[in-house]
Amino acid sequence: MGWEETRSPRLCYGHFPRKTQSNGKNICWDHKGEIALPYSPMMRDNFHAFINKTIFRRYWIALNDIAKEGTWTWTEPGSTITHTVGPVL
């Protein structure tokens, strides 16, 4: 388990056995961190820089298709993805 200090809240990352996003979110909360949710341009830039720096690790992010398979939404504020920037992972 590790932490990345950014201008946003502490982001949780780590090497864990495969788990669901909900399990990952709870583990992050248990360690006083937050699952990655880059909802502003500054946070998105910080998040992309973090991913690029640590590209070979696994991550939990606050994006899922739980409500409808193939329709990806952020857990907060719940907006749907309308475009892609390209492969991040």
Number of strand segments: 4
Main sheet summary: 2 strands, antiparallel
Number of domains: 1
Assign an overall shape: globular
Work out the strand percent: 5-15%
> Strands of the largest sheet, in order across it?
1-2
Helix percent reads 25-40%
Cα separation of the termini = 19 Å
How many whole angstroms does the radius of gyration measure?
A: 13 Å
Order of helices and strands: EEHHEE
- Label the structural class: alpha+beta
Total of DSSP H or I helical runs spanning 4+ residues: 2
Summarize the structure in words.
It is a single chain. The protein is 26% helix and 11% strand. It has one domain. The relative contact order is 0.19. The protein is globular, with a radius of gyration of 13 Å. A hairpin with an 8-residue loop joins strand 3 and strand 4. The longest helix is centred in the middle third of the chain and has 13 residues. The protein is of the alpha+beta class and 89 residues long. The strands form two sheets. The protein has a two-stranded antiparallel ribbon.
